[in-house]
């Protein structure tokens, strides 16, 4: 009986192979460690496609800068006053830095002769309203130079026309997870070599360009080759929950492409157990664990929604989870901060 079933399976497999072509999995990335992926998938072929990029001159500082924001400001005006036509792209770490530099640029412009004040600042970051983000793609008025103040969203996510000069302070804001404290945070860290190369490449999309790295050349050699994978710096609870739902119980021994720390795995298993998603023998619980695995949310929020229906407050919990699942739904421009503080004080008084 077993032999008959085995023969039937073999015949069915051969029929499927004749009917369907072999499945091809193509993984593409601008800054991927191709060697690692190739080795993981059994020596899969890696194809490197060179982009159409013009020559970019890269300049370094002689000494390390104590204040990269101030150095970026100085470099903006050096380019504006000494270099030929072309827009400037400045990489900064977040909204606060971008708005600070934008304000400083406007202040310094007022000190220049009127004919030298033709510099237009345009910010772009994730929480900026979409209609304001689109301003970066609009050409500058005749006779003006555009300076774009951006986060790492401009590294690979968008290609902005007109860029000939890039200013790279060499820092980026990245998510980090401390498994001991069980807390996630955003911290400012040095970029990787792959990120630095991506940034400099922005200057050579339409013609020869220049990249000004605000750190010495020997510091570039000390950078990591590629960005640290997010699986090594985030909470693994949702990843482990999905693996459990797929029937993979040996999480510690699972063959991750980039294996996270044992402490991070244990902390996430502990959290899932406390939430009731896992049983005493580390199996997915029924029905809570299976319900949580079906929701594309952080396990804490999944459990909150499941319990909310029992307490007849599902609508209110959906609103709370929606608010907590995004970085921020509010855009608070710097020029309105005084009004916001006054409103907050008014609420406290009443």
TrEMBL record:
<keyword id="KW-0547">Nucleotide-binding</keyword>
<dbReference type="InterPro" id="IPR048333">
    <property type="entry name" value="HA2_WH"/>
</dbReference>
<keyword id="KW-0067">ATP-binding</keyword>
<dbReference type="GO" id="GO:0005524">
    <property type="term" value="F:ATP binding"/>
</dbReference>
<keyword id="KW-0747">Spliceosome</keyword>
<dbReference type="GO" id="GO:0005681">
    <property type="term" value="C:spliceosomal complex"/>
</dbReference>
<dbReference type="GO" id="GO:0045943">
    <property type="term" value="P:positive regulation of transcription by RNA polymerase I"/>
</dbReference>
<dbReference type="GO" id="GO:0008380">
    <property type="term" value="P:RNA splicing"/>
</dbReference>
<dbReference type="InterPro" id="IPR027417">
    <property type="entry name" value="P-loop_NTPase"/>
</dbReference>
<dbReference type="Pfam" id="PF21010">
    <property type="entry name" value="HA2_C"/>
</dbReference>
<dbReference type="GO" id="GO:0016787">
    <property type="term" value="F:hydrolase activity"/>
</dbReference>
<keyword id="KW-0507">mRNA processing</keyword>
<dbReference type="Pfam" id="PF04408">
    <property type="entry name" value="WHD_HA2"/>
</dbReference>
<keyword id="KW-0378">Hydrolase</keyword>
<feature type="domain" description="Helicase C-terminal">
    <location>
        <begin position="73"/>
        <end position="247"/>
    </location>
</feature>
<dbReference type="InterPro" id="IPR001650">
    <property type="entry name" value="Helicase_C-like"/>
</dbReference>
<dbReference type="InterPro" id="IPR007502">
    <property type="entry name" value="Helicase-assoc_dom"/>
</dbReference>
<dbReference type="Pfam" id="PF00271">
    <property type="entry name" value="Helicase_C"/>
</dbReference>
<keyword id="KW-0508">mRNA splicing</keyword>
<protein>
    <recommendedName>
        <fullName>RNA helicase</fullName>
        <ecNumber>3.6.4.13</ecNumber>
    </recommendedName>
</protein>
<dbReference type="GO" id="GO:0005730">
    <property type="term" value="C:nucleolus"/>
</dbReference>
<dbReference type="GO" id="GO:0003725">
    <property type="term" value="F:double-stranded RNA binding"/>
</dbReference>
<keyword id="KW-0347">Helicase</keyword>
<dbReference type="GO" id="GO:0006397">
    <property type="term" value="P:mRNA processing"/>
</dbReference>
<dbReference type="GO" id="GO:0003724">
    <property type="term" value="F:RNA helicase activity"/>
</dbReference>
